[in-house]
């Protein structure tokens, strides 16, 4: 999530995107913070139920 936030920050620093406003990295992190619980939940689900990832990849989990 940190790498994606850094990329987003570089995008909004462009004058045509940020419209000349000063947008700091902290502002960007606060903006994406609401997505953090969802990312954590998905990670926990994939750890507890690895067959979800295996099914999405079209393979089977071995016991």
Short description:
This protein is mainly alpha-helical.
Description:
The protein has 63 residues and is mainly α. Helices cover 68% and strands 0% of the residues. It has 5 helices and no strands.
Characteristics of this structure?
63 residues; mainly alpha; 68% helix
| Largest sheet data | none
Rg, please? 17 Å
Query: What fraction of the residues are assigned to beta strands by DSSP?
Result: under 5%
The poorly predicted ranges are none
General shape: elongated
Mean pLDDT: 83
Work out the count of structural domains: 1
Distance linking N and C termini: 31 Å
Indicate the percent of residues in helices: 55-70%
Order of helices and strands: HHHHH
Structural category is mainly alpha
Individual helix count:
5
**Count the strands?**
0
